[in-house]
Amino acid sequence: MRFIWHLIFNFGIIELFSIFFIAINVFTFLLYVIDKRRAIKGKWRISENMLIFFTVSFGGLGALLGMYTARHKTKKRKFKIAAVIGLIAVTIPVIHIIHALTLDRIIVYREIQFHSENWPVELNGYRIAFMTDMHVIPDEDMRAVASELNERNLDLLILGGDFSMNNSHYVGTLREISAINTTDGIFGVEGNHDDYIRLFAAKKLHGITPLDNNGIHIQDGFYLAGVRDMWNRDPNINEAISDAYENDFILLISHNPDVSMIQDTNEVDLILSGHTHRGQITFFGFPMYLLLDHITSYRTRFGYEFAYSRDETPVFTSSGVGVYYNVPRIFARPEVVIFTMYSYPCNTMYNTVLSWKFLFLPLSRALALHW
Questions:
Q1: C-alpha dist (Å) from residue 189 to 13, 115, 158, 358
Q2: Which end of the chain is more exposed for a tag (fewer CB within 10 A), N or C?
Q3: Rounded to an integer, what distance in angstroms lies between the CA atom of residue 89 and that of residue 13?
């Protein structure tokens, strides 16, 4: 198993599947051609069960080519059905691979309006960008992100953690991020892949403020807090928000959204998280990998977008902006999220919008939010 994972991380899932796809279709094609020749010569035949097995096991294209090139089994209905099943079995991963090689490599800039009764009226229109899970994003890509964000009139930039700490790559990433202009600065927390000592030191060198179970008043009525990563250390929400005033709008950053289910979030107004990568490799967007409970203990609850904490605090989980080594994003596009904040007399509107949003989500995502 370790050898397989080593092969995947060093060679690439898409590259390995492409080799497998070509090999099994060439093999299936040869099976049909050889069986036809043996039939003509009256020799030992390849069993029909074996032909059908390889036809439906991603070998549909090779089977069709073999059937019509060698004029073999073309009149048997079960082989036609097997060929169709095989083509479908091939088409689905091919669609996912094409998506991974095209759209999943283009960063999306999402604009979201967030309304809260606790948000200060004086700060209506305040713009907060959120980036998380940078990992091994190339410096040129992060430079392009910085250029784009500098055109979007940001007041605040928040980093959700997870850089590439295996070498000095994270330093280059932070250097590019530090070129992003904001009114009130750049703040960030650690992720589970981070060495917080090295990361925090590098952040300070680049003018980025690390949050370590603490917080800061950004503006009158607006308090920003950040907690440690729950896989590495001891996050403490109460400690992080202890300096906030009673009527402050409290925005909490936690790399792992699971902390919102095991600690008190009643005083928090909005939580921003990452970590789940939207499932990284999904089936047409459904994060099947998250069902294994390896990344989060709450399956697909925090797979993507808005969900609620144990205390009904809204939690937004971003898919992240970076690439995790050689593991591709498949129907899990990278993104930078920009929140424009508004006050509203009560949170009824926000809750209504959120509820109607759930009604129109794809069935898979709607079900995921209720695990």
A1: 30, 24, 8, 29
A2: N
A3: 17
Task: Please write the tens of the pLDDT for every residue from 3-42.
Answer: 655 655 566 777 788 888 899 999 999 999 999 999 998 8
Q: What is the pLDDT of residues 313-336, one digit of tens each?
A: 999 999 999 988 878 899 999 999
Exposure of 351 by Cβ count < 10 A (0-12 exposed, 13-18 middle, 19+ buried)? middle
Instruction: Please name the amino acid found at residue 103.
Output: L
Residue 154 is given by DSSP the state B
The DSSP code sequence of 10-46 is HH-HHHHHHHHHHHHHHHHHHHHHHHHHHHHHT-PPP
**Token pair recorded at residue 350:** 């926000």
The helix/strand/coil state of 354 is: helix
Entry field: residues in the chain: 371
Q: Give the global pTM.
A: 0.84
The CA R_g of the chain, rounded to the nearest whole Å, is 25
DSSP string, 71-108: T-STT-HHHHHHHHHHHHHHHHHHHHHHHHHTGGGS-E
Q: In degrees to the nearest 10, what's the CA dihedral of 189, 292, 328, 257?
A: -20
**Distance, CA of 310 to CA of 347 (rounded, Å):** 18
- Beta strands 186-188; 209-210: pairing state: parallel
Q: List pLDDT tens digits, range 230-266.
A: 999 999 999 999 999 999 999 999 999 999 999 999 9
